[in-house]
Amino acid sequence: MKLNMKTLAVAFAFAANSAFAAPITNGKFTNGLEGWTVDGSVTLGSDTAGIHASLSGNRGPGVYTTLSQVLRLRAGDVFGGQAQFIAGDYLPYNDDAFLSIDGLNLFASNVAAVGNYGRTALTGFTWTAASTGDYVLMMGVANRVDGAAPSSLLVRNFAVTSDVPEPGSCALIGLGLLGAGVARRMAARNKTA
């Protein structure tokens, strides 16, 4: 009987732990661009703040270089990261960049906002999922009007945090409560015997 209970507990913990996939793959780019869909010129670099992906708007007038991934989030999950727009052009060539989830911009900038050859600060952002489901994370940068002097978008430190307990944690709490109940019952039996 003990072996069956132990086997059942291990199977329950494994099933609960694998019930929900990781919400983001390679959010800090430590494995290159693995897990990301790339369309255009995206390179990796590093500095004291860590690894970043750099998207170049060098594909021609109005054609976005993009980097994307589908995130599997639960209601209450908080997605965050950092982005920086670097203008390689001047007005009237209003190059632009964006970062969005399901079409909602979390970061956006252009040459008009930062000035000729200007840049934004490295900007942090967060967004909270209202419901459980799949969300498309998309970012891009485009050159406007001409194909010269492309601007770029740097992104880094993508992560998902949650106040929602992980399924594996719930399983461990449940098993702990079950074990405490069994131990209490056995102690009570031994006391009366």
UniProtKB/TrEMBL annotation:
InterPro entries given in the database record: Ice-binding_C
Keyword Signal: yes
tRNA-binding in keyword set: no
Range of residues in the leader sequence: 1-21
Domain called Ice-binding protein C-terminal: residue spans: 163-185
Keywords annotated in UniProt: Signal
Pfam families: PEP-CTERM
Descriptive protein name: PEP-CTERM sorting domain-containing protein
Originating species: Massilia jejuensis
